DUF2199 domain-containing protein (Paenibacillus radicis), 177 residues
Amino acid sequence: MNFFKKNSRSYICSCCGKKHDELPMSYGSHAPYIWFQTKAEDRDERFSLDSDLCVMDNKHFFIRGNIEIPVEDEKKAFIWDVWVSLSKDNFEKSISCWTKKGREKDSEPMFGWLSTSIPCYSEETLNLKTMVHTRKLGSRPSIELEPTEHPLAVEQRNGIKLKRVQEIAERILHMNG
């Protein structure tokens, strides 16, 4: 008999019937929701955007972070890479320690509003209340959702099964087709 180890990350898609070699454990957005709602020709003038920070009209301030969701029987969490709006004061506090080693020790959690519309949920995720937790240099902030009954908040609290990760992958893979 020949035994082989199955790749636990491959799956047969229930939407298209094809085998996919990898089950992604992270998805994200390269900009806050409002950026996508702004006319493309106006973005350069209205936004300052890099991979982690965004400012709109010098009035709206965003930081990129991770919502981590525990996955049953997995060592690593499933991650939604999201944007959160911060007050000007909290944004400036974040910037002031952005490149400092040990920044996580000196930073208090900051209130923010989720500014990413995440697919795969029966309720909109925009404007959910969050707390932004600064992490060590080189790591994006951890985003903690207010413990409500919103499906995303429930998943963050209770975790999900690998089957749910596959459902998310299938939904995102087939969103535009």
User: Anything to note?
Assistant: Helices lie at 33-37, 40-46, 88-96, 103-106, 151-158, 162-173. The chain has a mean pLDDT of 90. Residues 26-160 form one domain.
